[in-house]
Amino acid sequence: MTVVVIPAYNEEKSIGRVIRDLFERGYKNLVVVNDGSSDATASLAEQAGAKVLNHPINRGQGAALQTGDDYAVFIGAENVVHFDADGQFNAVDISGALRLMAEKNLDIILGSRFLDKRSKIPAVKRRLILPVARLINLLFTGVRLTDAHNGFRILSRAALGKIKITQEGMAHNSEIIAQMKKGNLSFAEYPVEVVYHEYGQGFAEGVKVVRDLIFAKIFK
User: Fold this and answer.
1) How would residue 218 be classed by pLDDT, with cut points 50, 70 and 90?
2) How far apart are CA 170 and CA 136, in angstroms?
3) Which has more confidence, 149 or 58?
């Protein structure tokens, strides 16, 4: 069984469409972790047919993912897909990633927007934020990736047994990669499309990502 875990914080503009797209692609086990949203995210997710887990306060994407992972393991998931709630990902990419995972008997698939040309990446992200995040990840984890900050990933049940997210903010990306290396988990990157919206993550959020990565290493 494949379970799609969708962390969501104030995503009422997109959550319904994201869930419908996943259902249309045949993914029926959808878990939305409502991370203390103050808007209608939770109710819209329920109306669209997803299982909704609620954090009473906003704890951060890392915490939301761990809540979803724990629930997925509890209900017997064999694979867990991490999928953003803001509509940036394309559900069509999941099937190919799962196929690669099965063919090569991999523990983890990591999405990359740099392995094909579908993603129209804003200049500041492409030239500054993402390269810096990639460098920091390499320095902190020793794992060289084309895209170190991508929320699309698939974890096998074996991987879920070795990866426990403690970084509640955006530094969880590097934490997952570090634990992946420590646990000797096999992985591959897979090309995924990232669609940027005007209401999506902006420059300030990109800077916060880099800050969280640095703070997580310094104060660990």
Assistant:
1) very low
2) 13
3) 58
Q: With contact defined as beta carbons under 8 Å apart, do 156 and 108 qualify?
A: yes
- Determine the angle formed by the axes of helices 172-182 and 61-74, rounding to 10 degrees: 50
- Token pair for 145: 């990736």
How would you classify the pairing of strands 108-112 and 79-82?
A: unpaired
- 194 within 8 A of 119, measured Cβ to Cβ: yes
- One-letter amino acid of 42: A
CB crowding 172-202: b at 16 or more within 10 Å, else e = bbbbbbbbbeeeebebebbbbbbebeeebbe
Q: What is the DSSP secondary-structure string of 102-146?
A: HHTT-SEEEEETTSSS-----HHIIIIIHHHHHHHHHHHH----S
What residue ranges define each of the domains in the chain, with the CATH number in brackets? 2-120+150-197 (3.90.550.10)
**Burial label, 89 (beta-carbon count in 10 A; 0-12, 13-18, 19+):** buried
Residue 146's CB is within 10 A of a number of other CB atoms, namely 14
pLDDT tens track for 85-128: 999 999 999 999 999 999 999 999 999 988 777 766 665 565 65
Kind and range of the H or E run holding 91:
none
Helix (H) or strand (E) holding 68: helix 61-74
| pTM (2 d.p.) | 0.85
What token pair was written down for 113?
């927007």
Cα gap 22→28, rounded to integer Å: 8
